[in-house]
Amino acid sequence: MLKNIISWTRSVAFLIIIFCGFITAGTAYAQIEELSNGYVDVYLDHDVGVGAEKINKNIRKRVDEVYLYEQPTVKAISHMYWGLGVYSLDDDEAVDEFMRINECDMYRKFVGDEFEWSGIRDAAKSFIRNNKSEFPTRFEFIIPLKLRDYITRYAAFSVQDEYKIQSFRRFELFATDAFKSSCVKDQTFLNGYPRIIVLELSRPLTIVRVPMSEKMANTYTREKNKQFKKKVKKVAYRTKKAMYAMRDAYLYLRVKIFSHGGLLGRSKSSRLTAIRMMGILEGYEIYADRKKETLFYSQIFVRSKKKGTLDVKLGDQYRILEELSKNGGVLQ
User: Fold this and answer.
1) pLDDT tens for residues 45-92?
2) What is the pLDDT of residues 263-298, one digit of tens each?
3) pTM for the structure as a whole
4) Boundaries of every domain in the chain
């Protein structure tokens, strides 16, 4: 009956809107910052230096075998909420919403019979109780970027000003299918599970340049210029602004979410509800395309075998957050 309850959708890119930058979150951040003293993330070095460390494909494959990063669909994050203790099994309405999201046809078929539905709800509670430790907490989020000019002395493209990420810690993230209609008409976006995650990273993220070799940059600009000329037929309209608008890139963040900080109500930027969550950035990749066919640059901070300095520090961060999140979330 519930065999399809954990079938998560892995499709479509998803919209992420940068919400604001640097923040603090009390003791948790203070302890994590102390761990990070004297350490500089490798990718930040490229903002003042030359070259991009292309990740070895064998390492990428090994990491992918260890951790599965889910697409943040409404179904997937509904499981995460239970895995992180956002809802209680004593809350029948929360359990019913889980079923509406994951087993809509079943809900529609049996909700009119409260006796039948009571048994189904109990089965759903047992399923959640027995499986919540396996529900996903690792997700891959996409941030669209726009590139400007290639700077030879940095061996990197600069990121256009409005797309620069400068020491940001907080992001407002939408589920990939955030605006998909609810299962039944009387359930609105406001009274369902949050479809926006206000994610607070344990460390600030900076992406102001995208390192790559001159050869790769030349291939990219030639291809974009070809597309530009094809799209803009009239020579008089071939402005730099129009050209820059076509220089797409995509930042894929790999995040482990640890804890929740309570519901935030309706988002200012949409009619959807939001929830605060805290996570650790385990790595990121920057591609020329949404299909992830052309990799520009990559940093993976979690290794399945070899353990470096950063991996040790990530381990310390995990232990701090796990301890602080035992009593209802580090952000409360």
Assistant:
1) 333 233 333 334 444 444 444 568 889 999 999 999 999 999 999 999
2) 787 766 667 888 898 998 888 999 999 889 899 998
3) 0.70
4) 16-75+137-327
